[in-house]
Amino acid sequence: MIPYGRQTIDEDDIKAVVEVLRSDWLTTGPKVAEFEKVFAQYVGAKYAVVVSSGTAALHAAMYAIGIKPCDEVIVPPITFAASVNCVVYQGGTPVFSDVEPDTLLLDPDQIETKITSKTKTIIAVDYAGHPCDYDSLRKIADKYNLVLVADACHALGAEYKGEKTGTLADLNIFSFHPVKHITTGEGGMITTDNADYADRMRIFRNHGITTDHHQREKQGSWFYEMTDLGYNYRMTDLQCALGISQLRKLPKFLKRRREIAARYDEAFASLSGINPLVVRHDSLHAYHLYVVRVDSGALGIDRTALFTSLCERGIGVNVHYIPVHLHPFYRDKFNTGPGLCPVAEAAYEQIISIPMFPEMSDSDIEAVIEAISTSI
Ligand SMILES: *Cc1c(COP(=O)(O)O)cnc(C)c1O
Q1: Ligand 1 residue neighbourhood (C-beta within 6 Å)
Q2: pTM for the whole thing?
Q3: Domains of the chain by range and CATH?
Q4: Averaged in consecutive runs of 10 residues, what is the pLDDT profile of the chain (376 residues)?
Q5: Burial degree of 288 (CB within 10 A; 0-12, 13-18, 19+)
Q6: Which of 122, 156, 284, 360 has its CA 20 to 30 A from that of 332?
């Protein structure tokens, strides 16, 4: 069985974690600040704030911006539910805006029709690892005074016009779940150039307790104040040590993901009816996922039948994603449903994600291609 994605853990990673186990710090210690520093350097952002998951990172971003009840946030339908749930955590209202048919990224041309006097933020999702059209998104954000957030959980190491993800929006979100580019088991990060946002998120991840130790020293070492309602979204030193070790290998992981994608591209160029998503010339893809659209008109087999056939042949496939606005929670609470985002809904009938992870061998890749060729 070849899974659709999985982590790569080597002896260096294991050693890094064991060293922390033998140290004085298990949770917030020196590895937290070190991981934030090397991560910020890698993406080229001023600040990085580490938290316990990508979902916590999204929540912290909504908090930092100050999303509150009645605020509206523009979101794409083709994403993991967490990209949208974070708006609801803060009492805000997600407003779904449709995607481009060829990339399945938020379509800048559709956004303006969704903007009202209540709109505060746009959350752009770099779906599959392809950066959104940030120049167009920035123009819209500036015109309407909106904060631009990038959910770059799929796109660590991707580039847009030569700039890495992590710097493309006001707040940039990453996840370290085992299927993502680097892992800490669970984990997340927000990068920003805005010191105020970074401060707010550091307080938010620690119960809303101010962490200004200068102030603490002045007023007695026992003294602290809770200045707002926060959560325990801290990450452990154990996990940060793993993150630091994994980040060193990111260039190697990315190189392999791109090699696998190049081989798939080549194979599917001659398989009509198996259509990979489009990659824009101004972007460097990070290939968290490799997604193809199954054109049942050309093939006589549809996505669902191909899915079943590949599972039977031991190929781990998946569908990313059921459009978020079609989930019962959003239908019930926000009155969404079919027809709201027709491009996303049509794509959903056709998409399938095929195996993509750095440890795939060349023969694994050929086995996937062979299984697809003989299924259609
Ligand atoms: C993985 C993911 C998240 C959530 O990250 P977790 O670390 O699993 O909480 C959010 N958005 C997108 C697009 C993701 O792929």
Answers
A1: 53-55, 79-80, 82-83, 125, 151, 153-154, 175, 177, 186, 188
A2: 0.97
A3: 11-249 (3.40.640.10), 251-375 (3.90.1150.10)
A4: 96 98 94 98 98 98 98 98 98 98 98 98 98 98 98 98 98 98 98 98 96 63 88 98 98 98 98 97 98 96 97 97 98 98 98 98 98 96
A5: buried
A6: 122
